[in-house]
Amino acid sequence: MKKIAILFLTLLFTSCEGLLEEVPTDRLSQENFYKSKEDLIAALNAVYAQVRGANSYGTNYPAQLNGMSDFCISRGTQIPVSEFQGLDGTNIGRTDVIWRDLFQSINSSNIVIQAVKGVNITDAEKNAIEAEARFLRALNYYNLVRNYGGVPLRTTPIGEVSQVRGKRASVDEVYKLITDDLQYAETNLPKTVTSGQAGRPTLYAAKLLLASVYLTRENWTLARDKADEVIKSGLYSLVEVKTSDDFEKLYGADLTTTSEEVFYIKYARITGQGWGYPSYQHPADGPYTTGVRAHFTLPTLPLIKNWSDKDLRKDYNLYSSYTNRSGRLTTFPTAEPICFRKFRDTPANPAGNDFPLLRYAEALLIYAEAVSQANNGPTAQALESLNKVHRRAYGYPSGAASPVDFTLEGQSAASFRELVMTERAYEFMMEASRWYDLKRLGVAKLKEIIKTARGKDVKDAHLFWPIPKQEMDNNPDLSPADQNPGY
């Protein structure tokens, strides 16, 4: 994948200087390279390669988003992320490369979408390859629009910097492209992936991502229906647990896939192929992935304080002491007493854990929230979906009634949504989703939650990341007025 990425980056920024210059047949170009299905698959691999690294999904993306939650506090150079006053230069540099890599990945998707039309393969094969490229383009635009607001829409390949153009589209226009891409993807992607292809999207990954999009847009009925299609497919199930360590069967570094995986960014314990983010959770001398301990939490924060010790996720996610590599029991500093350990591997880098972007628990919790919101109150089906996730967390079989079940008695749409949001916070802790959930509740509610938990007043500048200076300088369709507030 590294070689493929280098090849396509070279192609991306190379252009001919003379119209009459003959291109030697032993040289590759975007126009003459794509001859077979194998060429197109190689091009698809480049789409993944550009966002798997440390600059985006590998490290910067989850690190920035987790640090903006109400239960996680950042250390070191990440401190401004958790102060909610807007980003400083160091962290602007981090969000700048997230923008760059996501748009490079979008550009590689566009190359595939354009090239597939000219390759001599069956229509079904063409449609499936285009669908995968459009799924990945939609995923990247979804993460761009939620972090930057409206962004330029690019649906054709860009070959050089001088071609970087495009006004900021409206948020609605970005979501229209995302929805169109995912609807195409759910129609043309395969139902399941073939053996050895874990990490590629299926039509149910497209449906679940669509459900998430609809939930964000508060289109409750469509969110409900798409999540329900994933649930009723019968292809997925919660990974059952009886002890906290059993969650390794869901997140462990040695896993290839699980019954809960819908779409993950895949990593391996191989130099250049590992996941960098786990190093943000652990100390350098601990029993897990060698790290920098960039994130911690406090027992006084509401979600941590109110978390039942009987919830197995608590012990799995949090730790306050460890035996270091010299055999000495070590506790974290008093000011930073608890760290996160969901993603863990052997005491070396890189970590082999996968980044779980879409899993079955998401389908259940989207369904629960969307049903209640659409119905102006929870139903028995919504309650059961929530309870399945909740039971599993306490070590009970997810499909049978348990002593920890929530009930419908006294529940309104508002109170039930709060239950679901709390369950999401615990279930998806450190999976880079809490900030998005807080934003879905509205700016006023987000600010209230952060003020209560952290005692911080959230500045409007912190709600969106700045458009990179390089984009502002190179894109003639943007003016200083297009920059996000506060930057």
From TrEMBL:
Transmembrane segment boundaries: none
Domain RagB/SusD: 341-487
UniProt family annotation: Belongs to the SusD family.
Main location: membrane
UniProt subcellular location: Cell outer membrane
Name the UniProt record assigns to this protein: RagB/SusD family nutrient uptake outer membrane protein
Keyword Hydrolase: no
Protein keywords: Cell outer membrane, Membrane, Signal
Region (Disordered): 468-487
SusD-like N-terminal domain: residues covered: 93-215
Database matches in InterPro entries: SusD-like_N, SusD_RagB_dom, TPR-like_helical_dom_sf
Entry keyword annotation includes Iron-sulfur: no
Domain of life: Bacteria
